[in-house]
């Protein structure tokens, strides 16, 4: 059993808490039995599984993944986690190599900064059958915090990160681009189902979307009614509403 925080296997895994290291190595960490089970079901490569000796679920999942569980002390396990009260196992996995924007309904995370928002939108997109696209300045989609917030959504939908901050990748894929903005057409007057695959663009929490994107000729502007008088909605909430409306109207057309 590994009890030292300086053990090479532990320090190597701990490096993956940093975005630069994740991108350089192409790996990330996931926490808990549910996420590990989801990764295995999605045939994601599992490199390491760290767990305390009494974690029998980790033993079974390690067998399914084809790796030998690495027993660690509770302190070592906590050092590998990004949550306050981690539940093992903690596994190191390969980040799926997705680069192609598919011509399907998509949610676009445009410079989204909050891991919780990003993870929530990935979770919602997976539930509603949407692809997830993200610009280069969006929080790392495969950071442990985002993966935890997505509750397995990463393993049930296509995610493409690092897109240039232009509409070109979306229009090139044949997607109709749409944004939510206060001066858009009331969503009740827009039939979101009468079009081919769409790209619903959600802007940065503090700054929204660049004016050049919002005002682009090919972009459909939609306004969500807020009779309660609020200025704006949380980014993940707005994304979830738009995805649901698109799904509901698409299925009735």
Lay out the secondary structure.
Layout: H1 8-14, H2 19-25, E1 27-31, H3 33-41, E2 46-51, H4 56-65, E3 70-71, H5 74-80, E4 90-94, E5 106-109, H6 115-128, E6 131-135, H7 144-150, E7 159-163, H8 168-172, E8 176-186, E9 198-202, H9 211-214, E10 220-223, H10 235-252
Parallel strand pairs: 2-3, 5-6, 5-9, 6-7, 8-9, 8-10
Antiparallel strand pairs: 1-4, 2-4
Helix pairs in contact: 3-4, 6-7, 6-10
Please, could you describe this protein's structure?
It is a single chain. The chain is α/β, with parallel strands linked by helices and 253 residues long. The chain is built from ten helices and ten strands. It has helices at residues 8-14, 19-25, 33-41, 56-65, 74-80, 115-128, 144-150, 168-172, 211-214, 235-252; strands at 27-31, 46-51, 70-71, 90-94, 106-109, 131-135, 159-163, 176-186, 198-202, 220-223. The strands form two sheets. Strands 7-6-5-9-8-10 form a six-stranded parallel β-sheet. Strands 1-4-2-3 form a four-stranded mixed β-sheet, with helices on both faces. α6 (115-128) packs parallel to α10 (235-252). The N and C termini lie far apart (59 Å).
């Amino acid at each position: 059993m590994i009890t030292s925080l300086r053990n090479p296997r532990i320090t190597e895994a701990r490096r993956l808490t940093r975005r630069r290291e994740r991108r350089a190595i192409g790996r990330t960490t996931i926490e808990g039995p549910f996420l590990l089970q989801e990764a295995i079901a999605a045939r994601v490569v599992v490199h390491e599984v760290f767990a305390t000796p009494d974690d029998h679920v980790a033993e079974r999942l390690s067998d399914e993944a084809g790796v030998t569980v690495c027993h660690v002390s509770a302190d070592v396990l906590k050092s590998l986690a990004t949550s306050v009260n981690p539940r093992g196992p903690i596994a190191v996995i390969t980040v799926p190599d997705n680069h192609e924007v598919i011509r399907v309904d998509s949610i676009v995370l445009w410079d989204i900064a909050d891991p919780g928002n990003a993870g929530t939108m990935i979770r919602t997109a997976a539930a509603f059958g949407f692809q997830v696209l993200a610009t280069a300045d969006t929080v790392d989609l495969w950071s442990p915090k985002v993966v935890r917030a997505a509750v397995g959504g990463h393993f049930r939908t296509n995610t493409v990160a690092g897109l240039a901050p232009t509409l070109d990748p979306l229009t090139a894929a044949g997607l109709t681009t749409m944004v939510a903005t206060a001066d858009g057409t009331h969503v009740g007057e827009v039939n979101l189902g009468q079009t081919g695959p769409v790209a619903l663009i959600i802007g940065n929490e503090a700054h929204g979307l660049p004016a050049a994107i919002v005002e682009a000729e090919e972009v459909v502007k939609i306004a969500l009614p807020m009779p309660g008088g609020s200025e704006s909605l949380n980014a993940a909430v707005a994304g979830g509403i738009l995805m649901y409306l698109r799904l509901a109207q698409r299925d009735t057309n």
